[in-house]
């Protein structure tokens, strides 16, 4: 920091120190002398100025051999300065002012560039030869559109009733396609062939199956084995009808060397193809058991 009195550079001990130690010592001596002179009524003697030695590259120009006093040195007055947080805030303020000044100058230059481009477009620009204040001709008014004609209502298809002749036709076609058993999509095919709604075909087929106790295609999906084993199960099971014994699938599985579950599924498929219910009525087994003197047993494995 520079001394506020002599301008010499020094390192301050505290933030409020603005003068070097030599100047502060001289001022303390002067104040002490002034106090002493006031007490004794005598004017204090003038303190002789201390000579200042000049050193450095310019010492030869000023005559380094001759001492220079503060009165003859003509030292310029110290510049006003700040310290601590005040100096930091001043520096931040100056930096903000500089950025704001640069931003304004940049915006001002861009604005002038835009004005110059609007007033004097370059010769290479396709719109350079156009007059600036040319107005577009008014658009011609379009003639009013004629009103659209109302749409014709969609024709309502004639309602088809399930008559006796149509029912007979649907049943005959169903029995023809469902031999030996029906397949998935048979109702859709019949509706497409006869040109009737599928709902009517489903109703006619449902009534026919209920009347004739016909199995549907999903009731025949229980057996998934090969057809060869199904024929072996059929040859061993059919002679035991109409009322096979309870647990016949286990006996046939042991006899044929097959899995009991496979034999059970095959018997269910065979009974569905023969239009028989999945299980025999319990009273048939009770009657046979009473005739043989055995207790009646009803099991789901009766076939």
Describe the overall structure.
This protein starts with 20 loop residues before the first helix and ends in an 11-residue tail after the last helix. The protein has 303 residues and is an all-alpha fold. Mean pLDDT is 76; it is low at 290-303. The longest helix is centred in the middle third of the chain and has 36 residues, at 84-119. The protein has eleven helices and no strands. Among the domains are: 1-39, no CATH class; 82-113; 166-215; 222-302. The protein is elongated, with a radius of gyration of 61 Å. It has helices at residues 21-40, 59-62, 70-73, 84-119, 164-177, 186-194, 198-212, 227-237, 248-256, 260-273, 282-292. α5 (164-177) packs across α6 and α6 crosses α7 (198-212).
Q: Which helices and strands occur, and which strands form pairs?
A:
Elements lengths: L20 H20 L18 H4 L7 H4 L10 H36 L44 H14 L8 H9 L3 H15 L14 H11 L10 H9 L3 H14 L8 H11 L11
Concise summary:
The chain has helices spanning 21-40, 59-62, 70-73, 84-119, 164-177, 186-194, 198-212, 227-237, 248-256, 260-273, 282-292. It is mostly helical and 303 residues long.
The whole-angstrom Rg is 61 Å
In DSSP terms (H or I, runs of 4 or more residues), the helix count works out at 11
Write the element-wise H/E pattern from the N-terminal end onward: HHHHHHHHHHH
Helix share bin: 40-55%
Largest sheet: none
The backbone outline, from C-alpha atoms, is elongated
Please state the average pLDDT score: 76
Q: Strand percentage, roughly? A: under 5%
